Amino acid sequence: MRITVLRSFFLLFIFAFTGLYAQETAIMVRAKAKDAKFIGSSVGGAKIYIKNAETGEILAEGLTKGSTGNTEKIMNRPRERNENLAKESTAGFLANIDIKEPVFVTVEAHAPINKKQATVISSTQLWLIPGKDITGDGVVLEVPGFVVDILSPQTHERIPQTKEVEIMANIILMCGCPVTEGGIWDANQYEVKALISSENKQVNEVEMKVGEKPSTFSAKTNLDAGLYEITVYAFDPAAGNTGVDKTNFIIN
Fold first, then answer.
1. Confidence of residue 18 (pLDDT cuts 50, 70, 90)
2. Reduced to 3 states, what is the DSSP secondary structure of residue 55?
3. pLDDT for 11
4. Nearest CA-CA partner of 68 in 110, 117, 35, 33
5. Average pLDDT over residues 24-48
6. Confidence band of 79 (pLDDT split at 50, 70, 90)
7. How far apart (Å, rounded) are the C-alpha atoms in residues 109 and 115?
8. CA dist list (Å): 192 to 53, 97, 172
9. 2.60.40, 1.10.1060, 2.30.30, 3.30.420: which CATH number matches 22-143?
10. Whether the predicted pLDDT of 3 surpasses 70
11. b or e along 3-22 (b: 16 or more beta carbons within 10 Å of the residue's beta carbon)?
12. Cα–Cα distance, 223 to 37 (Å, whole number)
């Protein structure tokens, strides 16, 4: 009887003692472009932060790495309940966090991290429970917008007044997915314009059209001598995606 009591006490002690130790808990985080695919290595990835929501302590951070995923599965096929969109090679960030008790966390995606003029923050909050892994698709953060890069005119470029100004911009989804005429991301459904201003006054608005090269929009205009700022924007009225880039140039 005494041995049984001692054994029970010993087991209770061991259980209580081991309960003080943290358990490794896995959480997969992915960033997915709105109306498009996952944000991964091809655009530099999304920077992921997992923070204690109460204290702000960063529990884990890293980049999503991998491919943008299967286009047919993500964009064209109906999705069944609990069906994963991602596969092993699909971009994501897997964090392994040691926790002793449930922790309420904030999960942030800064994406695409290498395009500062286009980077947005998408976030959500949830409880992490020790030993209860969140894998598969995991936590998927939607990232709206376009990446807009003005290719021409170059910053501070001097253009003769006698010469036509060529405006050119590269426009892609946040995952790097291309914009093409008649494609999955159809250039014909997007509004792309260049707003040209001088001394904070708009002097011209030019509609830009997609060319033969995927994701490249262009237009031409004539301007008087002066200092100019150009703003190129892209807008998708169906999905609500938007994107902007700016530069300055000089007409001699």
1. very low
2. coil
3. 45
4. 33
5. 98
6. confident
7. 13
8. 39, 44, 12
9. 2.60.40
10. no
11. eeeeeeeeeeeeeeeeeeee
12. 39
